[in-house]
Amino acid sequence: MFLGEFEYKIDEKGRVPIPPKFRRELKEGVVLMPGVETCINIYPVSEWKKVSATLTSGTIAASKLRRLNRAVFATAFSLNIDGQGRIALPVPLRVYAEIEDEVVIAGANTYLELWNKEQWEAEKTISQEQAWQIIESLEQRG
Predict the structure, then answer these.
(1) Per the structure, how many domains does the chain have?
(2) What is the pLDDT averaged over residues 106-127?
(3) DSSP SS3 for 54
(4) Residue 101 belongs to a domain
(5) pLDDT tens digit sequence for 31-60
(6) Scanning 15, 53, 78, 134, which has its CA 20 to 30 A from the CA of 90?
(7) Could you give phi then psi for residue 115, rounded to 5 degrees?
């Protein structure tokens, strides 16, 4: 389970450290893809396989499945963590997430999210304001 938030600076080669407490869990590699919001999602390989299986096993039309596959898999990157615990962020993902020098790595349960620091602060405020409403709606279902 990935918990917490961590602030880092991107180095001159576009690398960012992975929080030390997560490195062992990510030693087999990671898959990065654009998040639904303007962030980068980082999945452990084992979790990515689950996401991949879910995306390719639906009962949607073949044409929609091809589009979904293009949107997801063509924009994803498979990476390994280097000996110093860093990953090199691919330029297309950095541009998408508007990450230049400061980044926040936020735990999102089964994966991590990388955010532009300013955008993270705005998203965190909105998320925290709405969290109680979301929790309440979950409680009403149960």
Answers:
(1) 1
(2) 95
(3) helix
(4) yes
(5) 999 999 999 999 999 999 998 888 877 777
(6) 53
(7) -130, 150
